[in-house]
Amino acid sequence: MTKLQWDQVGERLYETGVDHGVLYIPNASGAYSNGFAWNGLTTVTESPSGAETSPQYADNIKYLNLISAEEFGATIEAFTYPEEFSQCDGTALPEPGVALGQQSRKQFGLSYRTQLGNDLAGSDYGYKLHLIYGATAAPSEKAYATINDSPEAIAFSWEVTTTPVGVPGFKPTAQLVIDSTKVLPADLLELEEILYGPAVGTVQPKLPLPADVIAIFAPAPPP
User: Fold this and answer.
1) Cβ atoms within 10 A of the Cβ of 188, count?
2) In the chain, at which residue ranges do the beta strands (DSSP E only) sit?
3) Distance between CA atoms of 56 and 62, rounded to whole angstroms?
4) Does pLDDT of 126 surpass 90?
5) How many contiguous H segments (helices) and E segments (strands) does the chain have?
6) Burial of residue 161, with CB atoms counted within 10 A of its CB: 0-12 exposed, 13-18 middle, 19 or more buried
């Protein structure tokens, strides 16, 4: 084994930014079959919780540690949001331009992209696709302030909890991340055409379930 080296050329990696936000609304069967571009997305703060140890004692010693289930949560911040998100934020639209608050909140899916950089290519080194499932937005405050000599756009914010979905062979999860620098470009393009819709055609953007995403990147079976 060779001696470890630090900060080699091309290995000074970092992650930055957030863009390409897409909201997915599930249909009656639970499939995330309708995708809508989320303009004005400024921040997604991922907040995992759980996975806490609970020590168990026997024979006057620590016998083992039990670990609680891990949960995925997040905070979404944006200057605006798709109209379709209203139903996820407890708002009903009985007529165009008319909004009713304190209504039932619908689950949603979300995808967004973060940039990967290194010391050679800068922020153009690659990116990660983040896929979120079973998300529910909690009520949030909205502060409307008078316009003054230093005007600022109103920033909306939502606390999000999730319900994991099944993944064959693994524990259920609410989050999936794809690294563009570690997968085949053709496979990545196939996934992006599903997430964002193809350049040509009328196929609607959708959020595939984790098992379907994993299948895209699985090696082709031998002939």
Assistant:
1) 20
2) 14-25, 34-37, 41-46, 49-50, 53-58, 61-67, 70-71, 73-78, 92-95, 98-100, 108-118, 122-137, 156-162, 165-167, 170-173, 175-179
3) 6
4) yes
5) 2, 16
6) middle
Residues 6+ positions from 99 with CB-CB distance below 8 Å = 86, 91, 92, 93
Planar angle of CA 143, 147, 152, nearest 5 degrees: 65
- The number of residues making up the chain comes to 223
Average pLDDT over residues 5-28: 91
Tokens of 202: 């009328």
Q: How far apart are the first and last CA of the chain?
A: 37
Question: Which tokens hold the place of 205?
Answer: 């953007």
Query: What does pTM read for this prediction?
Result: 0.90
119 is written with which tokens? 């010391």
How many CB atoms are closer than 10 A to CB 43? 12
Q: Which residues contact residue 79 at a Cβ distance below 8 angstroms, ignoring those fewer than 6 apart?
A: 40, 42, 153, 154, 155, 156
Residue that the structure tokens 């299948």 belong to: 215
Q: 174: which DSSP letter?
A: S
**Model confidence at 144: pLDDT above 90:** no
Return the number of other C-beta atoms located less than 10 Å from residue 35's C-beta. Answer: 22
Contact 11, 180 (CB under 8 A): no
Secondary structure letter of residue 167 according to DSSP: E
Query: Helix, strand, coil: what percent of the chain each, to 5?
Result: 10, 45, 45
